[in-house]
Amino acid sequence: DGGITQSPKYLFRKEGQNVTLSCEQNLNHDAMYWYRQDPGQGLRLIYYSQIVNDFQKGDIAEGYSVSREKKESFPLTVTSAQKNPTAFYLCASSPDRGREQFFGPGTRLTVL
Amino acid sequence: EDKVVQSPLSLVVHEGDTVTLNCSYEVTNFRSLLWYKQEKKAPTFLFMLTSSGIEKKSGRLSSILDKKELFSILNITATQTGDSAVYLCAVETGNQFYFGTGTSLTVIP
């Protein structure tokens, strides 16, 4: 069953803690993306990766970090430097440029 | 600065009505425009448009792109309650996708 998965579904964290969100795909897609969605706003790009071991900052990368050691996996770490991390985080993948993105179910992060 | 603007922000209609959602954009290096439907969680893909004037159609949904005027519309005919969702427009440039804020559609029985 091909698809893109994210875990956990809900995540709570205390201020000052780093937390890592998981994103895995078995679609054999080259490109992967992380977005943040806030109420009343569109999706904003945090990081993207076109190939393994390479990634680029999006518009709101500050306070976040990523790695792309395997084609299937693109974890996102929300660091304590991110001032307002409470949001809905969506991971997506795409076969390559010029093709549509497929989205995971999302992780809702709440900072207490 | 690249930007994508959708209108209206929200819309409430009765079952059976026809709706038109708008998406305008200003980006450098336009490659394609995409429409997604988001119900609570993951957006699901509807259409990808790359050429002006060619309508894409899927059931009651259709979409068209005007690259001269820099906009696209998404039409939904004979709306049903299952069409209630947020509809997102995204524009692909060289490396990134820029999303609009979405149009929230509510269909009342």
Q: Can you put this structure into words, describing what you see?
A:
The complex is a heterodimer of chains A (112) and B (109). By secondary structure, chain A is mainly beta. Chain A contains no helices and 11 strands. Chain A has strands at residues 4-7, 10-13, 19-25, 31-37, 43-51, 54-57, 64-66, 76-78, 87-94, 102-103, 107-111. In chain A, a hairpin with a 7-residue loop joins strand 9 and strand 10 (102-103). Chain A is globular. The model of chain A has no long low-confidence stretch (mean pLDDT 92). Chain B has 109 residues and is mostly beta strands. Helix content of chain B is 0%, strand content 59%. Chain B contains no helices and 11 strands. In chain B, the strands form 2 sheets. In chain B, strands 2, 4, 5, 9, 10 and 11 form a 6-stranded mixed beta sheet that branches. In chain B, a hairpin with a 4-residue loop joins strand 9 (85-92) and strand 10 (97-99). Chain B is globular and about 40 Å long. In chain B, 30% of the residues are buried. Classes of the chains: A mainly beta (112), B mainly beta (109).
Cα-atom radius of gyration of chain A: 13 Å
Order of helices and strands of chain B: EEEEEEEEEEE
Oligomer type: heterodimer
Care to count the β-strands of chain A?
Answer: 11
Q: Mean pLDDT across all residues of chain A, rounded?
A: 92
Q: Indicate the low-confidence ranges of chain A by residue numbers.
A: none
Largest sheet composition of chain B: 6 strands, mixed
- DSSP summary: helix tally of chain B: 0
Biggest interface and residues each: A-B, 23 and 24 residues
The major beta sheet of chain A can be summarized as: 7 strands, mixed
Indicate the mean pLDDT of chain B: 94
